[in-house]
From TrEMBL:
The keyword Membrane applies. This is TonB-dependent receptor. Keywords: Cell outer membrane, Membrane, Receptor, Signal, TonB box. It holds the Pfam family TonB_dep_Rec_b-barrel. It comes from Saccharobesus litoralis.
Amino acid sequence: MKIGMNMSSNTNKFKFNILTASVLASLSVGSLPAFAEEEKIETIEVTGIRGSLIESMNKKRFSGNVSDSITAVDIGKLPDATIADSLQRITGIQITREGGEGTKVNIRGNENVTTTLNGEQMITAGAITKLEADFADIPSTMVSGIDVLKSTQAKHLVSGLAGTIDLQTTRPLSLDEGWTALGKVEATRGSLGGEVDPSVSAFVGYNLDTRLGFTLNIAKSESYLADYTNGSQGGEPGRYGGWSFMATEANNFVQDDIDVSGDGDTNDVFYSFQGHQAANRFIERDRTGINSSLQYQITDELQLTAEMFYTKLDEYAMANAITASQAWSSETGWFTPLEATGYHNVTHVDGEPVLNEGEFYTLQSALYQARVVKAQSFTRADEKEAFNSNLQLDYVGDSLSLTLRWVHGEAAADETNSVVDSFVTDGSSIGDTYHGPGKTFISHVNPWGYQGTEAYLPDGTVVEGAYTQIPVGIAYSGGKQHWAFPDMMLDDGTTEAFGSNLNRYSAKSSNLYGIYTNADLDVIRLDGKYELDLSIPVLDSFTSIEFGARSAERTVSKQGWYGGVARTNQYGDAFLARWKDTATDAPETVESYIAPISFTELNEKGMIKAIDDFHGTTGLGTLYFVDPEVMKDPIAWHNEIYGTHVLTPDAANVYEVIETVTSAYAQLNIETDIAGMLLIGNFGLRYVETEFDVTQSEALQGTVANFNGQDFLLGPGMQKPVGNTLRTVNKYNNALPALNLALNLNPDMVLRFSYTETISTHDTDNIGGGLNVNRTKTCEQTTDTGETVFCATSGTLFGNPYLEPQQNDNMELSFEWYFSESGMFNVGAFRNKGNVKEVDVTLMLDNIPDSDGVVRGFDIETGTYTGVVPIQAKVNVPAKGDWSDTGIEMGYQQGFDFLPGIWSGFGITANYTYSPGESDLTDYYGQKLPSVGQSKTQSNIAIWYEKDGLQARIAQNKRSKMFQTLKNDGAYKFAYFTAPTTYIDASVSYEVSDLVTLSLQGTNLTEEHQENYHQWESNIDGQVYAERRLTLGVQVKM
């Protein structure tokens, strides 16, 4: 699909290159980790669960810094369904889930985590602009091991503030000589989706006399994941909350000065959502992964490595949601409370909490007066591809070793969204009409829809002449959402259940939009190590010096767009409209340009779906929706229903960021004796120089834009496209020391200390993004020609190119006791201090115009014009805080091989993390909040068994409430949390022979769901329901 002329895209070009590279690499070179690793003090041959845990334990034991590891039970077989699911078993790791699958990862509550591949930076298509690790697009069978680095050495030139996750792939010269081959086939079925999802993977490798080798790993899987949601409208449960207002007894109900709470006064305030929804939602994923490697031992000193790592994810998120809302009216008090909880009424003035008169109430159950009831259909189509390659030459001499690497990466993520709002009501309660020139009335927007009844006071008194509404009961209790729709009286005196008649529905409004994101990475790096042999006292403690330099350039380009349907008004002027809405006016002539579209008509085309499955709710019968499946190609569907669209650029989401990083390091490695105890460690300094070359977009001025050689008026919902561009160059440098010490108290006990200083870059959206403004028509303004005005109410300034890097100082002290071959106990304390912090601020701007160019500053809650619009923005400020409170990590692992008989096959792995870190954010009461994505406590426990070819494991992951974000709503602050969760997974496998293994795995066995709330657990904002998934598999070795 061609985008408007003043917006370019290289997506198609990238796909051609990436596919070509994948095919060529599969035939020749592939994925191979670095040859010049640190020496391995102990070699363990991995077999089964026990062997995997032993190898992971030994990697931790002999690491030069604080780290944890996961080693695959076999080639391409991590112990969980996804990479993120495996990572959550490590102390300090916390994950988020989507569709029940682990996707994003943080370390000790900090999402600033860098992902590397075999020790060097990689690009993942799931996190092109972001910092956080996102493993949704990487098949777990492509990874043989994972290292989590919680402290850095000076030589770790690529790292995050919280740590680094290094994915590792299998090397051909590490295989047994000759051929190695295996294949695996799996079938997975979810308890709610009911479909069987296939997965196949294959690995082949050849090692010729430890001189020449190659590997090829291919993975393909499909999944259909239940992801039901309910709660407030406008939010994304588990990420951020829905639209909300404050409703005062004095001003915001159907009449002013109403004693809603019944306490004899009118000074109380209610927390009010704009709407409530219940959604049948599924996520469909199709993953492909290829990694291949070539390794050649040129001489005894020289080794050549070539590797590639390719992933592709096609994903469709599809939802059908029934919603009841107050349609952005000034009557934010659109309910009669049935169950409510009262609190002190606390607002914030100049950052300080202030106690006000009256009570503040949240609702658990109410009878709502819905101005609109609609059936919303949503499809998000994602295409994500990433290609990472490494060409590496290693030299190992007697004293000197050198590694030269060229790393190249490309990634593309194309996201296209289609939203259709179908009215079940007729639209009369909000004054929406289908009209001709001059707004001549033709019909209501949904002439077949239900009409409402007159609004009433909380005591039931009807208020004549106010507005009409549909009474809807909505309550939250017992982990579910409960609905009660009325039976509707028809003109012939009969009744029908609300929403039960397909012919009552109309596709009233739709929206098409998307984002194309691309990234390129090139790295040249030289690392060296020189072994020292000094006989001078004190200096003889220095065993080697490591040094290196790195130059990297990363380019991120983002191109957001809106789909504008091409129409002409009554004057014959061509215009583009984002909102395909029956009630919306054509520019200048103000007639409707979208005729009512009945479900009867769409049903004849096979586009309507009946749904009665709203898991997590009660009271909802069969309802009807535009089928999201027919919108899997959103652009094609909108062209079919509405006609030709032009994809027009959104200036707030069009930018290019070029990040150039030059770095160098020097590191001394030490080994000495202190009172008969061996001290091993390293200390060094890395220097990092960073330059950002940022090109931002400025919106075009005026109401006319040219696309593909034709002038168009910018109609309803259209954002002004790119006019001028603004280039900014920001440059800074940092010197970062690192110290890691390990004191061997005896052969089995290690005491570690680390002190490191780290920096990290930003999400490129926060550097290059522009201004996005929210506008609504509820201000009831019109132009001189009668055209409806959309008034600016709020907005977000996404990008600030002058942001300085985030900086942290990290310190850790830990103790490790290796009391048997498979037994370990460890405990550690960690602290950190932020030196620069990124904070959200609210700017009250007086230069944000409404759709007609006039600055008004409409306040929805008060219905007044303030002249200013609140805009959310990000700035850097120096951190004034001291070291954080001390966090604690504890771990225990033991195989019970000392027990007799069957009991010798059992073992246990357990860990606990306490992360009390605080951010500078404060909640409703002014109390400090944790970092985003942080739970204060998390624990894991796994009981496993391995004996006589049988392997089994059951694991529990438990975490306390997780802080997601802070919502500023006027003078009020509300912390948004996810309630505590407990997930239980299990697996069992049996080796039928040396060549064949059968397996069965279950995830989320208890069908745990996520409950999200604002400030108080009873103030439910949204709930997410995933399914139990069972996987049956067979693996064959050859």
